[in-house]
Amino acid sequence: MPQTTIRRRARRWLRDSLPFWLILPTVLILLAVQVYPALYTVWLSFQERNPTGWEFVGGANFRRLFGMGLFGESIGHTTVFLLGYAGLTLILGFIIALLLNRKLRFSGLYITLLFIPWVIADLIVGIAFRLLVVPDYGLLSGILQNPALFPPNGLSILTAVPPQPWIGDIPFPPAPAMIYLILASAWRALPFVTLLILAAMQTIPSELLESSRIDGANPRQVIRFIVIPLILPTLVVALFSLTLSGMNGVGMVFSLTGGGPGSSTEVLSYMLYSIGWRQLEFGRAAALALLIALVNWVLIGGTLRLTRVEERSH
Fold first, then answer.
1. 135-140 contacts: CB < 8 A, separation 24 or more?
2. 240-293: per-residue pLDDT in tens?
3. Which domain holds residue 28?
């Protein structure tokens, strides 16, 4: 075969295979940091560590997990936390976005200050909020330990006993520590949600809002029938992001409450940390990780479905 033909075929092969070589580093990184850990977690969930090595135990890890009383409690705590955290953050973010959308003076400064909590790590936020309520020297301890405000002996948020549940074993009303955890988590996530909603509001044509006012719509009707329907896809995305971050976040619980008092703030993500890194039960931790991943996939699928429905309706 002539040398010119060989060179021509080699150049053609290099040209045709160039896209593959360009994406190969990314594919290798994804395989190393996502695909391999996921497959290893699946394998680990069916194993148990013995002195002689790993032993296949089938679904024993899942059965042990479902048999734990703490597992059911953690599901209840996670549900209460997600409802409070996502609901509070979404409502406050919507209200603040409405205010900032009115072109207030120094709104740029307000947005800059609002963004500060988002750049602070969960661990730092948890430590800061914990120091606020530490008895004797916390910034809020003087108010919380006042018997006149919190009879009979004041309130210690991080050690107060949870109230008696209203319905069965459902942890509602939540413990003071859970309420405080929700407030701290909402403060941390509020900037992102607010800016997301604000950006969606600024895409609404001003002529549409002005014409609705001319037609006699009051501010509440404008918000209900125009603003909310137009930014509903953004609200769905924000709700999904909050639910997913609240489902998987462990840093705030670790640094603020440590799952306590007792197990009143032991959500599923913190339970996963406790089983894996405190008890060193890696097989059971992998089983719990798979269950949490399944919930994440359900959330993702539900959000995508809602988004498609909204796109068709518009």
1. none
2. 889 999 999 899 999 999 998 988 999 999 999 999 999 889 999 999 999 999
3. 3-44
